[in-house]
Amino acid sequence: MSKSLSAFMRPNVAEIKNACFAPSPRFVGEDGKPVEWEIRCISADEYAKIRSDCFIQERVPGKKNQVTQRLDIYAFQTRVAARCTVFPDLTNAELQDSWGVTKPEDLVGAMLIGGEFEDYIKEVLRVNGFKDETELVDEAKN
User: Fold this and answer.
1) For residues 23 and 48, what is the distance between their CA atoms, to the nearest angstrom?
2) pLDDT digits (tens, 9 = 90+) for 78-99
3) Does 75 score more than 50 pLDDT?
4) What is the tens place of the pLDDT at every residue in 16-61?
5) Beta-carbon neighbour count of residue 125 at 10 Å?
6) Chain centroid to CA 57: how far?
7) Parallel, antiparallel, or unpaired for β 85-87 and 37-39?
8) In the beta sheet, which residues pair with residue 28?
């Protein structure tokens, strides 16, 4: 095993390619096929910042002056999905206007129905290196 740091130098690290995924059969292209959305990876720092911004402070019932934090899962998922989506451009004002929203995270939530959103966020997380339950179970068995 080599102890050289050259493998960790940015120019030597393999590029992560964007992935494509069609989260809904409702968005159809001119060819009649579902349009694929382009998904990119985000850094661990960016992911942590989004997660940190999605914590909500709540008072503990029956405990005076005590608060607890909880993660707003939906806000977190929509922000991650919006940040990772390259196409369609969720920052496009015309697209946002057509759905009656003003933020990319609101747009992804408005465009997709519940099951589509769940499938999309699973794919976004997979592209970003997270494993689903099936993969974790398979690894545990081996």
Assistant:
1) 25
2) 999 999 999 999 999 999 999 9
3) yes
4) 999 999 999 999 999 999 999 999 999 999 999 999 999 998 887 8
5) 18
6) 23
7) antiparallel
8) 34
Q: Three-state SS string across the chain, please? A: CCCCCHHHCHHHCCCCCCEEECCCCCCECCCCCECCEEECCCCHHHHHHHHHHCEEEEECCCCCCCEEEEECHHHHHHHHHHHHEEECCCCCHHHHHHHCCCCHHHHHHHHCCHHHHHHHHHHHHHHCCCCCHHHHHHHHHC
pTM of the predicted model as reported, rounded to 2 decimal places: 0.83
Rounded-to-integer distance, Cα 69 and Cα 57, Å: 5
Q: Which amino acid is at 139?
A: E
- For residue 16, count CB atoms less than 10 angstroms from its CB and return exposed for 0-12, middle for 13-18, buried for 19 or more: exposed
**CA–CA distance, 133 with 55 (Å, rounded to integer):** 24
Tell me whether residue 140 is exposed, middle or buried, using C-beta atoms within 10 angstroms of its C-beta: 0 to 12, 13 to 18, 19 or more. Answer: exposed
Sign of CA dihedral 39, 56, 74, 135: positive
Which residue reads 């590029």 in tokens?
15
